[in-house]
Amino acid sequence: MPKISTTAYLDQRPGTSGLRKKVAEFKQPHYLENFVQCILDAAGDVAGKTLVLGGDGRYLNAHAVQVILRICAGNGVGRVIVGRGGLLSTPAASHLIRVNQAHGGIILSASHNPGGPDADFGIKYNTANGGPAPESVTEDIYARSQRIDAYHCVETDDIDLDTLATSHLDRMVIEVVDPVDAYADLLKTLFDFDLIRSKLADGSLSVVFDAMNAITGPYATRLLVDELGAPKDAVLRGTPLPDFGGAHPDPNLVHAADMVARMTAADAPVLGAASDGDGDRNLIHGAGLYVTPSDSLAVIAANATLIKGYSAGIAGVARSMPTSRAVDRVAKALGLPAFETPTGWKFFSNLLDDGRITVCGEESFGTGSNHVREKDGLWAVMCWLNLLAVRGDSVRDILIDHWQTYGRDYYTRHDFEALDSDAANRLMQELESKVDTLVGSTWSGHRVLHADNFAYTDPVDGSESARQGIRVSFEGDARIVYRLSGTGTAGATLRVYIERAESHPERLLLDPQQVLADLIAVAGDLADIRGFTGRERADVIT
Ligand code: VG1
Ligand code: CO
User: Fold this and answer.
1) Residue 204 a catalytic site member
2) Is the N or C terminus of the chain more exposed, i.e. has fewer CB atoms within 10 Å?
């Protein structure tokens, strides 16, 4: 096979979810090729094996898919299953890996980061279970990227990926599949489509979904409009665009503003939702009421047996460390195991594979189950539609009922973006160095009960992940967490997560920013955010 000489780039360390860089960085000579070769080398013997390939359609997706096919052929891969047009949502890619018993898959996305020539691109490798490669594999990819001096690649014109067909590139089979079919079939096994369809038809249920000009447009149109009979205009911004129409494909209250406006109007539908660039995140909104991702996870866990695919009950739950402890309360009440993992979906995979958990989620708009090994935006939307159809209540009623039963975890995340990396690192180092002395200290009346730098030992394979974020617990069931983002492409982002539990029946419907105002101030003082960063306020509050 032709071997092409190259020079190593030293900055190809995957973060929370793959390698994310500016498009201009990916366009450097051999930059993408190097990384793909390192993926294939770290993936074990790929000769003759099947891989899945696709991405969220952002700028560079189409080009990258062609390059990756050439390198796969150069490395003797047996078969590549590609989504038509090079498109696949992240959960659909995970499912295709599993259902085809593929060796793994390569997913092209920078998820919720903006796309376009001046914005972000990303690439990640998922293993045979359909989940993001564990740290042992991503570190191996990184180590190889430091010393790579050649890659294997065949020469060919661009392959036609717009026609559903099977073709050959050298001895490698390329199978172009519909990106939605298999995924839609999977969801049909999990949810009561007939019931939801009938409730949408009689008007007792209604939905609006914002696809944010990103990958979920075709998926949402198939499921909500074609299968469930919702009107066409139930899907907003439903055509995937390479630059997401210049918008930020991050499903939060700021970037999904049109959907939120519909949901806060007098004639709001029953359910409003949105997903991100690659389709693994979800935002859930009821008429006039936003559901935090931490609460959404807890509600889904508490009501799982009402949903067809989970009617036999769930084995256990897991949440990422910074996610609120709402789901822990459900687990306790139901006598289920609950796990706290580091940030990033890869840490859920072993628990899912081992059957220890069935549903899991992150505060960052990620929820999912054992049906795939990624978080899944439309799965969460279908969960809520199914629950609403069965219970016949509003989102508000379901949430208030939940809080009355389990209490409410008031929760907010404050992000300080595009910080000077050195300043952000110094802030974290200072926090780490004083973590042991914090216990017993009092901050504006809040006494610290416990403080540590979160370390995780995987209960299934014993692998260890240290320094995953600073946790500070206070009297009164309050908590502040600090960590640096691992998905940004410019400077550093400090994430500060603030929460407090409340069970008094008359204090369940307050404004989180007000309830948490004193703790938010403590969070700033305790880490001296202003001193280190010069910032008075967070850039994004969710
Ligand atoms: C963020 C979220 C994390 C999520 C990750 C990937 O990571 O906090 O919970 O798993 O994005 O999501 P970080 O390191 O920036 O905090 V996605 O939808 O961007 O693949
Ligand atoms: Co995403």
Assistant:
1) no
2) N
